[in-house]
Design brief:
single chain, alpha/beta, Rossmann fold, seven-stranded mixed sheet, two-stranded antiparallel ribbon, 11 strands, DJ-1/PfpI family protein
Length: about 190
Amino acid sequence: MSAKILIVTGDAAESLEVLYPYQRLREEGYDVHIAAPARKKLQFVVHDFEPGFDTYTEKPGYTWPADLAFSEVDPGQYVALVIPGGRAPEYLRNDPELRKILKSFFDTDKPVAQICHGPLLTAAVDGLRGRRVTAYPALELDMQAAGATFQDAEAVVDGTLVSSRAWPDHSRWMREFLTVLRAKAPVT
C-alpha cells in the first residue's frame, strides 16, 4: 500500500496549484486525495499576469471532483499535506473541520507544502509563528502578522514546511517538497 497525501482545496483554487502537485506526487508513487468542504465537482480558476494590471487576473479553469469532504478526513491516514492557493484559502480558513485537519498535521510535524495564498490556512491555525515562509508577495504583511519571517524566494524550507510564491515556482517547490517527503515519508 502506498503512502497517502492529502490536498485540501475548494472552488476558486488555482488550477495549476492543485493539479501540478496532484499529478507530480502520483508520478512519485503516492496515493493522492483531494478534500474540500463537500464531495462535489470543484471549479478551479486560472490566475495570470497581464501587462498593465496591478495584480493577477482570474479566468475560469478546470473542474475536478473532490474525493472527500473535510468532515470525512482522518489526518492519521496521511503522511503529508498540500495546500494550494488561489482564492479558496480566503474562505476555507473559516471551516472548523479544515482547521482540525491542519492542526493535526502541524501537531505531528508531518510534511506540509503550501503555495501562493495557501499560507492563509496555516496562519489560521497558528502554524507559521517563528517559521520562515514565502507566499504570494502581496501576503508579506499577512505572513509577518502570523509571526513568520517572510522571504521572497521560489521555495522556502523550514523543517517539514515547504512554501512557495505561486505556480511559476512549481519546479523548485515540488523538488524541495519531494526531498522532505523522501526523508520523512518515503513511498514503500
